[in-house]
């Protein structure tokens, strides 16, 4: 909420994909798009963490590489 870049993203970018005359209300569509964005972010961060852990374990087994 306090990061202006993320707030701008939600305010400026997401409404392009909202159908004002759709079956669901605009608020519900915005919540769904926001939830999808957050889910994708979690998946990407989990992938980064997993890869960083793998690289860290690899470097611990090979101390000469990290020098």
What's this, in brief?
About 70% of the residues lie in helices and about 0% in strands.
Describe the structure in your own words.
The protein is mainly α and 67 residues long. The protein has a domain at 27-67. The chain contains 2 helices and no strands. The protein has helices spanning 4-13, 26-61. The radius of gyration is 19 Å and the shape is elongated.
User: Which sheet architecture does the biggest sheet show?
Assistant: none
Mean pLDDT: 89
So how many helices? 2
By secondary-structure content and strand pairing, the structural class works out as mainly alpha
Topology as H/E string? Answer: HH
DSSP strand tally: 0
Beta-strand portion reads under 5%
Instruction: Indicate the overall shape.
Output: elongated
Q: Low-confidence runs (pLDDT<50, min 5 residues)? A: none
Helix content: 55-70%
What's the arrangement of secondary structure elements?
Layout: H1 4-13, H2 26-61
């Amino acid at each position: 909420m306090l990061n202006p870049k993320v707030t701008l993203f939600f305010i400026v970018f997401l409404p392009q994909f909202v159908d004002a005359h759709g079956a669901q209300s605009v608020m519900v569509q915005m919540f769904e798009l926001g939830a999808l964005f957050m889910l994708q972010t979690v998946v990407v961060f989990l992938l980064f963490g997993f890869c960083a852990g793998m690289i860290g374990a690899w470097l611990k087994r090979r101390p000469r590489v990290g020098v």
